[in-house]
Amino acid sequence: MKIVFAGTPDFAVPSLRAAARHHEVVAVYTQPDRPAGRGRGLSASPVKLEAIARGIPVLQPESLRRRSAQAALRELAPDLMVVVAYGLILPQAVLDIPVAGCWNVHASLLPRWRGAAPIQRAIQAGDALTGVCLMQMDAGLDTGPVLLDQSTPIGADETGGQLHDRLAEMGAQVLADGLGLLRAGIRPVPRPQPEEGATYAHKLDKAEARLDWTAAASVLARTVRAFDPWPVAEAMVAGERLRIHGAVALDAGHAAAPGTLLAAGREGIDVACGQGVLRLRVVQRDGGRAITAADWLNARRDLVRTADR
């Protein structure tokens, strides 16, 4: 079976490997190289690097709405197109080209968390369960019927990065299962998504990373986890801007104004929230690296260190 694969970030790499394991991947589509790093030199996507290593031709159109791009895809005569975090919209004219249509691997249990950032939004919302879906694509945004899915609990301390890596491997397995069925002459039965329970996972914005101390500590702790490793939560603590890499919510009462430093010791830095207390465990100063709360306190001699709890 001839497959065209479309993907861009790290999340898509395990799925590309799964597609190439037993099928002919005739081409890989990925977004154009983008400036990255301090030198702002052009950087290839992780999917492009994987494709080159496998000797698979790479195409990087700016858009698939152009007739020339659609003609190039049509010439490949794919049986199936597999799309995983590609980042470009596929118009109906493209969806109609592959014989078996287009499949998408999505990192949520649809219809919950359609959109760009399902992994982080699931953690931020306090979801207990998430997973991956293999979906038959239609013209809507993650609205197509589900072919296969797999669920998993979200760990109590799991970060966005950790869940990302787990779901990337799960997505590759679900894709492999679907391709295995096709190889056996069995087409997965599509299940239309219910509209009830549909939510949208908006793209992450760095402006969201600023913690609002008037919120509940439990909400802030989830945000810290969700935004690690990007965009990384940040806040003003004792007059200093810190990036927060690790924090836990304490169910503790207080009468202090939100943002007040309540205690500081080896176990962490306790900050008053609108409800409860957020204990900061791993922080990062401007221009520095991530350090423990104890190391930050050692550098802040102006602060009174409380007895370790």
From TrEMBL:
Its EC number is 2.1.2.9. Residues 203-300 form the Formyl transferase C-terminal domain. Residues 1-176 form the Formyl transferase N-terminal domain. (6S)-5,6,7,8-tetrahydrofolate binds at residues 108-111. The keyword Transferase applies. Attaches a formyl group to the free amino group of methionyl-tRNA(fMet). The formyl group appears to play a dual role in the initiator identity of N-formylmethionyl-tRNA by promoting its recognition by IF2 and preventing the misappropriation of this tRNA by the elongation apparatus. This is Methionyl-tRNA formyltransferase.
